[in-house]
Recover the amino acids of this structure.
């Protein structure tokens, strides 16, 4: 049985991903604080600990498993730069250290598309996180979505016609594709496909690859 450990399993992406992994036959462990246990989907094994302190959970990481890091400050905004460094960056450092110590086979990190004209502090922290993952030497997959459409996250749908227009012009085509919109289903499917694949080196999945991977996974299922 394949094994996966998730940091950030109670969030917008984490909950449906856990459900998908469990349905696919994975044994899933989800790191959670005691007060958040009720938010974890059924079927996974809770690991009580703090994502900001690797020593609280690292011995629960199965050797050879996949570690999926989804931790992030909710609703990123420009005025949350201190929180990005205190939560996003610190938790990633702890996850990488714990995963490397336990000899995981595959580290999966949810990053963000960059460069971008806004959210500089957020993107800077995520870029630092990517560098840490790269330098860890582990087999790794990094996802770089920009905005993930889903329940409660629908307002950018109105921008779709603008994106389509920008893709027609050479000067804006690359940015429109890189900063395009993906759905939560596509992201979850891509994360599942990464966890279910044979890890070998480092791969970075931009928006187009997330869409393609999500479509391929839907076809298989």
């Amino acid at each position: 049985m394949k094994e996966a450990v998730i940091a950030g399993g109670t969030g917008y992406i984490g909950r449906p991903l856990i459900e998908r992994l469990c349905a696919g036959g994975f044994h899933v462990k989800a790191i959670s604080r005691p007060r958040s246990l009720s938010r974890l989907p059924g079927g996974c094994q809770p690991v009580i600990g703090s994502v900001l302190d690797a020593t609280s959970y690292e011995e629960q990481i199965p050797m050879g498993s996949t570690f999926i890091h989804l931790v992030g400050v909710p609703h990123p905004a420009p005025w949350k730069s201190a929180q990005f460094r205190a939560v996003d960056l610190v938790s990633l450092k702890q996850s990488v250290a714990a995963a490397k110590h336990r000899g995981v086979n595959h580290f999966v990190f949810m990053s963000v598309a960059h460069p971008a004209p806004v959210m500089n502090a957020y993107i800077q922290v995520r870029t630092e996180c990517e560098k840490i993952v790269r330098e860890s030497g582990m087999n790794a997959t990094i996802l770089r979505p920009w905005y993930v459409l889903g329940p409660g996250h629908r307002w950018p749908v109105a921008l779709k016609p603008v994106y389509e227009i920008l893709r027609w012009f050479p000067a804006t085509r690359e940015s429109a594709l890189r900063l395009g919109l993906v759905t939560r289903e596509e992201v979850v499917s891509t994360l599942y496909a990464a966890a279910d694949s044979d890890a070998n080196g480092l791969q970075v999945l931009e928006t187009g690859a997330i869409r393609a991977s999500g479509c391929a996974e839907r076809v298989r299922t």
